[in-house]
Structure prediction request, 190 residues.
Amino acid sequence: MSDATQELHGAHSVRLKRTEWIKVWDPFVRIFHWSLVGLFAFSFLTGDEWKSAHILSGYLIAGLVALRVIWGLVGTEHARFASFVYRPATVLAFLVDTARMRAKRYLGHNPAGGAMVIALLLAISGIATTGYMMTTDAFWGIEWVEETHEALVYGTLGLVALHLAGVAFASFEHRENLVRAMLNGWKRSR
Prediction:
């Protein structure tokens, strides 16, 4: 899609400017995101009820996270960690500006969104690690491993709730549909 200006001639000349769009989220990022959403929900719902499916889902999640880490190092511009990992002071300043409804709009992840990506990747990695540990002879039945696994799951649900609230708030503040952008990959350039 490109920037286009049209002039309508007549008694009331009007200039209309079509919005310029840019591809921000590449197919891998979008497929990763929605696959992780589905697999996490599936894993949560099958936890104690369907062990073999739960374990398989956990392995798939671990594989997705590993691929996302690699893509975060070598992927497209907005997928790379270098484009959205900010110092804690920058994240805090962004959150203050957000509370005042004057946060800068970012084409890729904003500082809070970048921090959330890292927090979710770490939490889900912890879930996958403790889940794997629970399947080994060395850690099978060890209470602290199971408790840590469960605490990480519920902590991740809290992060997901914050993530959804942040997406809704940023969508409102900047008047753009961020969910649609994660589905089709396009955002307006300004």
Observations:
- The CA atoms of residues 5 and 17 lie 5 Å apart.
- Residues 1-11 have pLDDT under 50 and may be disordered.
